[in-house]
Structures are given as C-alpha cells and as structure tokens.
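ok so i was messing around last nite and threw this chain in just to see what happens. nothing serious, just curious
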Amino acid sequence: MGLEKYTSGTGQAILVHNRSKCKGEYCVIHNPSNHHMKSWPTHWRGDRGLMERICPHGVGHPDPDDIAFKVRMGADQLYEAAHGCDGCCLEENKENAKED
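result:
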C-alpha cells in the first residue's frame, strides 16, 4: 500500500497516500466533502505541506478537508488556515467566488 500518483488541478504531479489510508474519512484527494470550494482546482503548497483550492480570482485558499485532517492530527487550525485571502473561501461569500 504505497503511494499513488496524483495530478493536482494546477497540473502538479505529486505522490500522495494510498486511497485505503483515508477510507471512511473526508479527503481532499480521494473523498472531498461537499464544501463550496470543491470544484476549484487543487494546488499543493510544498513549502507549507498544504493543499489549497485556487479560486476564480487566482487566490489559493487552504482546502477545508486538508485543514480538518491536520487538526485531527493535532495541528493548530488558525495557524494552518492562515493565508492571503480575498474572502472567497468564506461560506457566506460563496456568491462572490463565482467568476466575474
């Protein structure tokens, strides 16, 4: 049960965990939850070890499923979710996240 190849929504070729490792859990790669950013392309931030979703304005927002995983592993949610934000990731602003 080694690693799998994954191509991010921005075309990055990366190795990720095997599908069996996240069975029964939400996973940004294998089983994303039904959040409003789900259709946005994924982008791996190797410098932060973080999967982002790129909004229609080109801004990277931490994927909620990746943040939830990190919190389950003991990370500080506020630290992990910090990013330069244009507001598109906020559920109440999802209408603003549509392409202009």
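not much to say yet. The longest helix spans residues 64-72.
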